Amino acid sequence: MHLIRDLASHQLDTMKKWIVTCTLILIATGVFGQNSADSFIDFQKSLPRPSEAMLHKEDTLRRQFAAKGLKWPASNIYIRSFKYDSQLEVWVKNERKEAFKLFKTYKVCALAGSLGPKRLEGDYQVPEGFYYINEFNPKSNYHLSLGLNYPNASDRLLSDSARPGGDIYIHGSCVTVGCIPVMNDQIEELYILAAHAKDKGQEFIPVHIYPIRYSNKKSVAFLAGLTKSDASLKAFAETLETVYDHFEITRQLPVVMTNGNGHYVFDGLSKKVAPPPKIKKAPVQHRYRNITNLVDVVNQWPEFPGGGQNFLSYLEKMGNALAGTLPDGRKKAYVQIEFIVDTDGTPTNFKMIKGVNEEFDDELITVLEKMPLWKPAILKDQPVAKKMKQNFLIE
To answer: Annotated catalytic sites, by residue?
Structure first.
């Protein structure tokens, strides 16, 4: 009988030790230990490294937000990284329908592997594709870290089934074997921004990882050479570019899904995915200036950043991004716009000469008003306002 009691007591002690050990592990990684009455930010402030980071960085972030006219803290953040260009951007907004605004660009300070997706454990590849933050690690070996949900649904189908790899993070310490490393003071800022967004209810913070910045000619040329003899890699990079282009034009993110073959499909971008029902919106008050000194003849025409070819490329990408919003049954549309490039380079007074319908035209003008500043027209060495007309294809 004593033997049975001793054995039972030993098993109970062993179980208690196991429970304590597991709890300590979960607390250390930030998975468990948060009091249900505390906010996520309060919990992070109870941890040594996040608390110290907030003490040193939060006031600086507040001032940087204020300088850019942004509301602190952001309710939604979006992170995108460009492998070849070694850059990581943070975009922010506070309302779901609001356009994202760029807060800051960080330098990725080390790179492992080459361009292309991660497909095998130990290949030292940084993943490429569409992910989200699924872990806050306040006791990382690399100062602080934010875990990514690699392998995602696409990776699980296209990567090695037995050894796809894992443990992909954005982290500090500037070393890597397949993660996205930044300097310690930078990961502190990223950690704080992400923690505040999670605290405000953003459960899935998107992180898009691209092989290149598709607007950089040098990067595009490098990728073209790399994929010249690799059709599958070229197709994969072009799929990612679809979302890059969509965001560049709209400053909104599409819904990303994975089909049965492991390929990405997008709500509003892929013909395979039915777009959501459209709700008729109230007319938007567009940018308008009272310009009375328009001229017909100039010494130098207005110039879009990078020149005329860049303007045509901009319109082509915008046309591709907006094709999914055409009325049902329409696959393409030829439109003609009229606008004025004012003396300060601002494109304004947009008018549809040939459009689609009132709702689509209104949305198109809203997007066009986000185009960058031009170099104004010049007459007798002075900037002047000039009216422009342009045809382009929505397809």
So the answer is: 171, 179
